[in-house]
Amino acid sequence: MSHDAVQKTFPPSEEFTANARYGAELLEEGRDAEAFWAKTARDVLTWDTDFTQTLDWSDAPFARWFVGGKLNAAYNALDRHVEAGNGDRVAIYFEGEPGDTRTYTYADLTREVKKAANAFASLGVSQGDRVAVYLPMIPEAVITMLACARLGAVHSVVFGGFSPDALRQRVDDAEAKLVVTADGSYRRGQPTRLKPTVDQALEREGHTVQNVVVVKRNGEPVEFVEGRDVWWEDVVGSASEEHEAKAFDAENPLFILYTSGTTGKPKGILHTTGGYLTQGAQTFRATFDLKPETDVFWCTADVGWVTGHSYVAYAPLVNGATQVMYEGTPNTPHEGRWWEIVEKYKVSILYTAPTAIRTFMKWGEDIPAKYDLSSLRLLGSVGESINPEAWLWYHRVIGAGRCPIVDTWWQTETGAQMLTPLPSVHALKPGSAQQPVPGVEIDVVDELGDPLPNGQAGFLVIRKPWPSMLRGIWGDPERFKSTYWSRFEGMYFAGDGAKRDEDGDIWLLGRVDDVMNVSGHRLSSTEIESALVGHPYVAEAAVIGASDETTGEAVVAFVMLQEAGEQAVRDGEDVQATLRAHVGKEIGPIAKPRNVLVTPELPKTRSGKIMRRLLKDVAEGREVGDTMTLADPGVMRQIAEDMRNSS
Ligand code: ATP
Ligand code: MG
């Protein structure tokens, strides 16, 4: 398959390159990976005790980075900036959904984290204990994570929309001692409730939780379990502002976080301290060209996802950056809310997901046009492949044709960005994550693990250990080995399909599980979806391979229409035929979908990723699999019914 449709590249402007924090020399330095990471670790972090060995890989695949080093994560994110005289710099501009705001300087945030650390310690939390965090997108989420880090305790953030069962599973898996939650939050203008979910999750005996700390956010009524539950404002409010951060080993566990569940049952990924912070902090400053004195960063991800860990809670603060945190939905109280926030806080770097961009495209470009977005200077994307059509829209409408876009590929498991253009150096290609970050070695290999030449599709692998790599799956070392390290000898198997183009730039092709084999041709879900999204009728598309008697697998497409598509349907046009022909023209006759099903919604995880495995279940007439992390289970019922009616 070719990318002929996307020939255009976007070289960096002279001005951007001239003012950039890093240039091509960084790529050069990254070639000696261990030396690069050793230098970087000392550069981006303050160590209490310096490390004596950069990497110990003698017990592969269990890595130890920065052996002998000791540090405190919270000290690195907070105190040291205050000590350096930057206590008055804003760390977080918080914007609540109802419009309430709070500003935390580095001095404020340091004080709050010290108090929370004292409060948690008074509840018996100490090094190595696990703390489940079930909070909305409010500053207390970041404060809680950093307070745990300060104590050497391990946080396990559970997305605030998950069910009692999902929460309980995660509390049990980690054997959490403490749960930090809130009365609730706001969603689409309505107060929501969290505490009852915690109560339900802990109803059944046999859990390890001793206390529940409750933040008062929306004033919804809560029930208290005597002796177990305490208000944040009481226990943190009354705590001392003095707390000295103890240094912990570089490999002290920092957090457990479950993957999104896009391909199956979520895995409890374990990250540790020194390596995780090093790569997060370094990629943050390089990829986003951060200037901490002047930039205002906004990552729209929830702290319940890895992006919210690495690029909200840790990397921006370790770098002393100023960031925006927003609690609510993009269309409350109106569809311009995000752009209003960009204008209000003069956001200069925006990091978001393709699903959001496609939604804004659907809402129309006249909405962002009403706001002053001239503060923006760099845009980022993460979570899925960004369809070239969406990239171009993001670039033109949000970035005014002026802001580079960095498409960053990484995973919960990788802890930090792994593939991305370096915006001062690489000519950007819409839809490609392009190149490994300095110090990381990524390859595309065939079934046997042999490197593939440019142009051939295969498996994405990571050839060498990297600092922010997962250290394991919590409590399951065998699953860690079999999931990531058994497919190819000595290499990390990412589970994603990829290929290099003629320039050696990497294109992600979708999950390996989603690669289709139609009459002996391997087809990528991502490419067919991008072709569909490139048609003016289509807002979003999900493509899967369903077993087929004649072709082995057949391409089945699920599409959400834009207004133009809906109009065409009303005019009696055979939209399915139009879209089949379009894919045939863009990619080739073999890629033409057997069925195109128009649907009002697509099944997505709560982090906004399309759940193709569920669509495959429906298309093959199976019972729909695990929907625990699905945002709206109703969507699947609707699609299953539409599918039955269409056949
Ligand atoms: P699970 O592992 O439970 O199935 P998940 O893989 O969706 O869930 P995450 O760790 O949140 O969990 O997502 C990582 C995956 O997201 C990557 O493996 C890749 O498939 C996809 N991804 C992330 N960023 C990009 C990107 N820039 N381009 C293409 N794909 C991306
Ligand atoms: Mg995954």
TrEMBL record:
Positions contributing to Mg(2+) binding: V533, H535, V538
Modified residues (N6-acetyllysine): K609
PROSITE patterns: AMP_BINDING
Obligatory cofactor(s): Mg(2+)
InterPro entries for this protein: Ac_CoA_lig, ACAS_N, AMP-bd_C, AMP-bd_C_sf, AMP-binding_CS, AMP-dep_synth/lig_dom, ANL_N_sf
EC number, as in UniProt: 6.2.1.1
Gene Ontology CC entries for this record: cytosol
Protein name according to UniProt: Acetyl-coenzyme A synthetase
